[in-house]
Specification:
about 1150 residues, alpha/beta, UDP-N-acetylmuramoyl-L-alanine:D-glutamate ligase, 8-stranded mixed sheet, 50 helices, globular
């Protein structure tokens, strides 16, 4: 019997992704039981060894169940209509209540439920509630129909593809009677998702039929309905139109081409972009339609939608990659136009990525390499240029994988000079850095020696845990040499941990990652900087200890936001990296602290090699090390030089050289033998010192308490009883939480520093779209959860938090509630910060099927820090065992990957290639400024479920319930002659997120000289219980945000003002205007102008005149008749002018005060 049930389950899970299998386990068991009962009742003798017969019987069973569900829905709707008529005829409240109870019984309430309903009549139960219950019952049955239709589609397709003993294909089709059922469902007037699944079901079955049968097997009326649905843009839901197009392509190719031409050449707004995108995908997938594309593409190449033009690029890529169209010169011309001339960088990037398919055709290799060479030379947009560079590397690797070594070598040789040119002269530093990385990958790929060495080194380091070492065979050292080994290791460490090559008395070994140990500088730093928000239970005396004389640092693993621990790799947005070619202070210190002879240390990166040689005299090395130790923070500040700073970039290396260290940078050579040197790298290698402030303060507090009145024995008994009660109650609650979790079929958790609440709401929108019942714990700016029953609309419900504080018992309450609500899906946002609590939530209670981590930016350093690398280490506690993890974290991805490997969990990383290609017109569908990385993360989760990305992004945008703190620009308001616009970004509670929002809304481009009409004000909500966050925002206000006014609200505003003044003092202390303290060529006036501009403070009369002129124009005062400069100089004349134009007295006063303030 078990074997038979297992065979039935195999049928029910046909075509399902692993994630969907978990979601439908309970339904699988019910259907198996129902099939067994059905076969007994119908007297069917099932032969489980005959798979074909078993499939046909299962199809019959599902058809019967679907018809039963339709009948139940009809009865419910009839009961509802009857109830509505009766309730209007019931004049008294008692009669109405009896009608309510009668209707409740009619739609399924048993005696126990009716008893509760009668009691509830005194509170909230009434007409609206019972109607809502009926609506829920109908939705549940609609969801059941959709679920069974999906199963029926796969089972029918499998049955039609089988060789039956007594039936041919046509007879098998007639036996299943699928068309009869689908025709009935296509007329269904309820939830549109039933119709969509009906279309999908029919399409799955028809696809497996021979082509000659597809045109004739369906009735003409059915084909007509499908054709009309494919043609009409208003009569049917967008996904019905898409499924109709898909089905039409299978059953009526000529009609499909007519519909295709009509939909693509008559573009409409809003949802029509998804239909056009689907049509283009079908055009690319079906080789039979490629010939028709020659005449169609010219008519649609300039489609108004970015999203659709990306679809054109993908379709052209699929067509050109096929044998039928590889030589089609016209299609190639249109493809080239998209790559080189489209006005959207997102379209150009999508078109470039489509070229990866084409290199499979030998006839297109030269064309693709020529095109990429042209694009890399001419492209100026960073996204499109990165796409071209990535495509070049991927194409070469694909050619080698296909054993086309000669083509790959020619491909790489042709592209290297243009990539080198970008590296040296690119407009953007981001482009230059990325070009260097891709150049190294290409050189490694096309050089046989390096390619072989890369494979050998990969075998050594692939399964190596961070901080561990493995022997490096001497034969490799002798055969390839340290220079080649270093350069290849630098390629392996680009998006991985770094590596160090160490020579010991036993031979050579490779260390993966970095090791940590006691550092005197850290000990002294912690003594000098006491703070109540330091993380407890963690060593605060450790730092990086670099070993070996050959190092290849990772290009990632940097802090996106500076933490309180100095010396950490800090992400520089201008370079999209942390400058690994520039030694860390800890690296310099490790070089100086070598025992015995001080050997030189070589750091190999994509930019070249940096060599450090310590003084040969040991006391000189020790003295230099002491200097670095005592002034560690000072040297760190010098290394973290930023664009626009009033010091020179070479000051860091110059100061290190003063200690006796000899530091030299050697670039690689290009194919002509000339140095491949980026001037932006060279500038760091030749200055005023930034003062170093030390506060020697440390307070030790003693806490004690006394006991009065009670004896010690009384206290012991009471404390013991209290402890026993606490432990037992917590154990019971934990068991309840675990039991409640077992009743939930699918659990998906989410965590991250930034965007986790928004991501949970996007997940909730996705699961609402597929119709599953769910509870989603999404706190965000307000404590609340989301709930939806099957095929129901998601509702937002508030959570009560005692003292406004989250605890893990909130999770207990919600998972128990989800179990009681019979929710099939539980989505939750992790609010725990302490690693112990995270372990309890994830590994004891929830045990996620899938987990997502948005990012690991520094935040809550007092609990998860203190350094940037500590944050992802804490977040590894959230990774489920034997589960699945999806993340958009890029910098600290190696740490998450290593932890996932230890937990036997698969990990999928989502990066810029997925996020930055999300079309702008798709992003604009969201009711707020949703971050593309969050969208890409949920799209990746949906793909794990087998859900189409187009469906995912549309449904998320249409259904998402926005958090109150999302980034959103509200409509402008006109008040007293001013246009005010509020842009909300309260969810951004750390530096990187805040500055990211600032740039996304383009505040960084609002220069006061070029935009005198704009005044920028910020509203900062401070919290008294977030000291580190207050200090961080104080520095942001002083150093990063160029605003005219800052308004502070919230709690502990006096403390916040103190932090701002401290940050201002620190900023001014670093600022030097005197000529003696500046580098040659640095004028004090220029430095002052730069700082004033950043603070939006006018430095000359022209700026003030420009602002006054804008104000007068807005007051409808003709400025041509007025000398603006005179009005600025003589305020009385300005006052007279305003009064002469009868301007409101309050506005006159405000205008005069503002001009006086500017002066």
């Amino acid at each position: 019997m078990k074997a038979d049930r297992a065979e039935l389950k195999k049928l029910l899970i046909l075509g399902r992704k692993p994630l969907m299998l978990r979601l439908n386990e309970k339904e699988d068991r019910k259907l198996i039981d129902g099939f067994v009962e059905y076969s007994k009742t119908a007297g069917i003798n099932i032969d489980f060894r005959d798979r074909g017969d078993l499939l046909l019987n299962m199809a019959d069973f599902l058809t019967v169940r679907i018809n039963h569900e339709l009948e139940v829905i009809r009865e419910l709707l009839n009961a509802q209509a009857d109830f509505t008529r009766r309730i209007h005829k019931s004049p008294t409240q008692i009669e109405q209540q009896e009608q309510v109870l009668e209707f409740a019984a009619r739609i399924g309430a048993d005696k126990k439920q009716l008893k509760k309903d009668r009691q509830a009549l005194k509170r909230w139960f009434g007409v609206d509630t019972v109607l809502e219950r009926c609506k829920k019952r109908v939705a549940e049955h609609e969801y059941a129909i959709a679920d069974k239709l999906e199963r029926l589609g796969h089972i029918s397709a499998e049955a039609l593809s089988q060789d039956h003993r007594s039936l041919n294909r046509e007879q098998c089709w007639e036996r299943i009677k699928l068309e009869e059922l689908i025709r009935k469902l296509l007329m269904y007037s309820g939830d549109h998702r039933v119709k969509i699944e009906a279309f999908k079901c029919l399409s799955l079955a028809v696809k497996v039929l021979p082509k000659q049968n597809r045109n004739t097997i369906l009735r003409e009326s059915t084909v007509t309905f499908i054709y009309r649905a494919a043609m009409a843009s208003q009569a049917h839901h967008v996904w019905i139109q898409c499924e109709a197009l898909t089905l039409l392509a299978e059953i009526a190719p000529e009609s499909f081409l007519l519909a295709l031409h009509h939909r693509l050449t008559n573009p409409e707004k809003d949802d029509d972009i998804f239909v056009r995108r689907r049509a283009l995908r079908l055009l690319g997938v079906h080789a039979d339609f490629h010939q028709a594309a020659e005449d169609l593409i010219p008519q649609i190449i300039n489609d108004p939608s970015i999203y659709v033009r990306q679809g054109i690029a993908e379709a052209l890529g699929m067509m050109l990659a096929s044998e039928s169209a590889a030589e089609d010169y016209k299609l190639w011309q249109w493809y080239t136009q998209l790559v080189t001339s489209d006005k959207s960088a997102q379209v150009r990037a999508a078109a470039l990525f489509a070229a990866r398919r084409m290199v499979a055709s030998e006839s297109l290799v030269i064309r693709v390499s020529d095109l990429l060479s042209e694009v890399i030379q001419k492209e100026r947009d960073v996204l499109a240029l990165k796409a071209a560079l990535t495509t070049a590397v991927d194409a070469i690797e694909l050619l080698y994988a296909d054993n086309l070594d000669d083509h790959a070598a020619e491909f790489g040789t042709q592209l290297l000079p243009v990539i080198t040119a970008v590296h040296q002269d690119g407009d953007s530093l981001v482009s230059r850095r990325y070009a260097a990385l891709m150049r190294e990958r290409i050189i490694t790929a096309i050089t046989p020696e390096s390619r072989t060495l890369k494979l050998k080194l990969q075998q050594i380091v692939d399964n190596l845990s961070p901080g561990k070492s493995r022997r490096l065979p001497r034969a490799i050292i002798k055969q390839y040499g340290k220079q080649t080994i270093g350069r290849v290791l630098a390629v392996l460490s680009q998006y991985n941990f770094g590596f160090s090559v160490v020579r010991t008395i036993f031979g050579w070994k490779i260390i993966k990652g970095e090791t940590f140990g006691f550092r005197l500088w850290r000990f002294l730093f912690e003594l000098k900087t006491p703070s109540p928000d330091k993380r407890q239970g963690l060593s605060h005396t450790i730092g990086r200890r670099f070993k070996g004389h050959l190092r290849t640092p990772s290009t990632i693993l940097s802090e996106l936001t500076k933490t309180k621990v100095p010396g950490e790799p800090l992400y520089m947005g201008s370079e999209s990296g942390w400058r690994p070619y520039l030694p860390l202070v800890d690296e310099a210190l490790s070089c100086l602290l070598q025992p015995f002879r001080g050997k030189h240390v070589t750091i190999v990166t994509a930019e070249g090699t940096t060599t450090m040689k310590p003084p040969s005299f040991p006391p000189a090395r020790w003295l230099a090390a002491l200097k670095l130790t005592l002034k560690f923070s000072h040297y760190t500040d010098l290394r973290n030089w930023r664009e626009g700073s009033n010091s020179k970039p070479e000051i860091y290396i110059k100061e290190l050289r003063k200690t006796g260290l000899k530091i030299h940078f050697s670039p690689y050579q290009d194919s002509s033998g000339s140095p491949d040197l980026d001037p932006a790298v060279k500038r760091f290698f030749a200055i005023p010192l930034i003062p170093y402030d030390v506060n020697w303060v440390y307070r030790i507090r003693d806490y004690f308490f006394s006991v009065y009145e009670n004896t010690l024995s009384d206290l012991a008994i009471f404390a013991g009883a209290l402890l026993l009660f606490f432990v037992v109650s917590r154990l019971v609650m934990s068991r309840i939480a675990i039991r409640s979790r077992r009743k939930i079929e699918l659990v998906v958790g989410g965590w991250g520093t930034r965007g986790k609440s928004g991501t949970e709401r996007l997940k909730a929108a996705l699961f609402e779209a597929i119709g599953s019942s769910q509870v989603s714990k999404s706190t965000g700016c307000e404590a609340m959860f989301l709930y939806a029953y099957p095929f129901g609309k998601t509702r937002e419900m508030f959570l009560f938090r005692p003292y406004d504080k989250a605890t893990i018992w909130e999770q207990y309450d919600l998972v128990k509630l989800a179990s009681k609500l019979s929710s099939r899906i539980f989505l939750w946002e992790c609010m725990a910060l302490t690693p112990t609590y995270v372990r309890i939530l994830q590994h004891q209670w929830m045990r996620d099927d899938y987990a997502t981590i948005t990012n690991t930016y520094p935040d809550h350093e007092d609990i998860q820090g203190p350094a940037g690398y500590n944050i992802p280490l804490v977040m590894t506690e959230f990774i489920p065992r034997n589960g699945n993890l999806i993340t958009t974290e890029e910098q600290m991805l190696p740490i998450l990957s290593a932890a996932s490997a230890r937990s036997n969990t698969s990990i999928k990383g989502i990066g810029w290639q997925q996020a930055e290609l999300i079309a702008q017109d798709v992003l604009e569908r969201f009711p707020y400024e949703e971050h593309p990385y969050n969208i890409a993360l949920v799209v990746a989760l949906a793909e794990e479920m087998g859900i189409d990305p187009d469906f995912t992004v549309k449904e998320m945008a249409d259904r998402v319930i926005a958090d109150i703190g999302v980034l959103k620009a509200f409509p402008p308001s006109h008040v007293r002659g001013r246009t005010l616009q509020f842009i909300n970004g309260m969810s951004a509670n750390e530096r990187f997120g805040t500055l990211s929002n600032w740039r996304r809304m383009e505040f960084d481009r609002l220069d006061p000289m070029n935009h005198p009409e704009t005044i920028i004000s910020t509203l900062i909500n401070n919290r008294a219980d977030r000291i580190s966050r207050s200090q961080m925002f104080a520095k942001i206000v002083v150093e990063d945000l160029a605003a005219d006014y800052h308004f502070l609200i919230g709690s502990n505003l006096e403390g916040m003002m103190g932090y701002i003044l401290d940050a201002l003092d620190g900023f001014l202390e670093k600022l030097r205007l005197s000529t003696s303290s500046n580098s040659p060529g640095e004028e004090p006036a220029a430095i002052f102008q730069q700082v004033a501009k950043r603070q939006r403070v006018p430095t000359d009369r022209v700026e003030i005149c420009s602002r006054l002129e804008t104000m007068l124009v807005n007051l409808s005062i003709t400025v041509e008749d007025v000398e603006i400069d005179t009005l600025v100089g003589k305020i009385s004349e300005l006052e007279n002018l305003l009064e002469a134009h009868q301007i409101d007295a309050a506005i006159v006063e405000e205008t005069i005060n503002y001009i006086e303030h500017l002066k």
